[in-house]
Every structure is written in C-alpha cells, then in structure tokens.
Description:
By secondary structure, this protein is an alpha+beta fold. Helix content is 28%, strand content 36%. Helix 2 (79-88) runs parallel beside helix 3.
Amino acid sequence: MIEFSLIKPITTLAEPFDxxxxxxxxxFLARGAAAHSEAEAMAFLARVRVPDATHNCWAWRxxxxxxxxxxxxxxxxxxxPILAAIExxxxxxxxxxxxxxxxxxxxxxGGLVRAYGGGAAKCLRAARKKTLxxxxxxxxxxxxxxxxxxxxxxxxxxxxRLDDGEYTADGVRWALGVEPDEVDGLRRTVADVxxxxxxxxxxxENGGGE
Length: 210
C-alpha cells in the first residue's frame, strides 16, 4: 500500500559548500549540504567530521525532523545556533557541521553562539540554493518476496526515498516523495511487481482521495 499527501516545495543547497574563518585564534570550518533523510544527514557528518579537531558540532532539519549536537561545547552554544541558522534562512533538507580547532582563548557562551551560529549562517548564505519540486508523500509497503526489486526502483528519477526503509512483520515499508508525473508509472510498477497485491492511495490535503 502507498499513501500520499502533498509535500510543499522546499529550498535546500544545490551542492555542498564550505566556509572557514578564524575567531580569536580558534579555527572554524562550516560545511553545509543537502540531506533528504536523517540517514543522509548522519552520513554527511560521518564523512566530514575531523577526529582530531576539538569539536564537531552539527545540526540538520528534514521536514518536521531535526537534531543538533554541541559535541562537548557548553549546552546550547553550538548545535542550537547552527539549527537556528538553517531555520532563519528558510532552508529545509539541510545539514551543517561546524568543526572547531581550539586556539587557546575561551570565547564565552555568547562568543560561542556567535561563532557557531554566525559561521553556519555565513556558509548557508554563500552556498548555491535550489528549490525542489512539490512532491507527493508516499508510504510503500511490500512483502518480503517482492521487496528486492524496489531497492532499484526507488532510486529512479522522480522518486525520492525519505527514509532507509523499515522491516515489518509482513515485509518492508518505505516513506517516499514522488513527483506528481510519476504517480501513474509508480502505480503500474507496484501492480506489476506485486502481481496486483500492492495498492496505491492518493490522499489530497483537503481530505479528498482516490
């Protein structure tokens, strides 16, 4: 079964972007990128974090989901300001990691907020943006015997996986974003692959449906 509701257009980063600055002898490196799920955000963090740096602070927002980390800095002085920078610029599906190499001079709580939040904001302002098309939110559930082909099918243009999939008692369930023009094709694919066992339900925001 696939259930749909409208996902509004979102503005995210067109490509990863880095910005480096020095503040009172501490080096700060802000890195931003698009992320369409928590898994993508955490994968970006794992890829860019610097193990021998003093701190790797981060935040991400994907729709209604968000997380942040101060990574050892005083509570509320790093992760939350980075998240506020993302939200303040109206961005979504974005992850930002700000790495700090301590330079020997303490910045104080206010200085840390300005350094982390300001660095993230400068990085995001300078990065190239893109607006994603409106999508239909989907939930796809298939039996175990039908699941294997969908790992390839869900990577095709016009279909975006919003999570990594979840195993249920009966099979596998995915949350998706689907371009409206792809709905009919996806309907046919689900019917063909599952031999008619799959079902596609489109639920509009106004409560209408199929």
